[in-house]
Amino acid sequence: MYICKVIGKVISTLKNEQLTGSSLVLVRVVSLGPDGKPALGNELYAAADPIGCGEGNYVLVTRGSNARLACKQTQSPVDMAVVGILDNGIPGQF
């Protein structure tokens, strides 16, 4: 699992029917920088969002087969999914 920051929503005119009910969000992984403070990574990921997080939220995401289970669709084409919204736990951010 990864701690990420939601930086936006993905707008899609067409998507796989098994993703109906889940929005897609853009996330960046949060890691500790050299000074010990949280820093956002450079890579962007698209994650399925079955729980309804918002832009600016810090979230817990999972990858692989666990992401498919989080979307309640074992056959859905998902590799990353949001499984929780963090209220606390990142130093200097809350």
SSE blueprint and pairings:
Blueprint: E1 2-10, E2 23-32, E3 38-49, E4 58-63, H1 65-70, E5 80-85
Antiparallel strand pairs: 1-2, 1-4, 2-3, 4-5
Description:
The chain has 94 residues and is mainly beta. A five-stranded antiparallel β-sheet has the order 3-2-1-4-5. The chain is elongated, with a radius of gyration of 13 Å. The mean pLDDT is 84.
Give the gist of this structure.
By secondary structure, the protein is mainly β. 6% of the residues lie in helices and 46% in strands. The two termini are 20 Å apart.
Bin the strand percentage.
over 45%
Please state how the strands of the largest beta sheet are arranged side by side: 3-2-1-4-5
Helix content: under 10%
Determine the number of helices (DSSP H or I, runs of at least 4 residues): 1
Low-confidence stretches: none
Distance between the termini: 20 Å
The string of secondary-structure elements, in order, is EEEEHE
Structure keywords:
94 residues, mainly beta, five-stranded antiparallel beta sheet, 5 strands
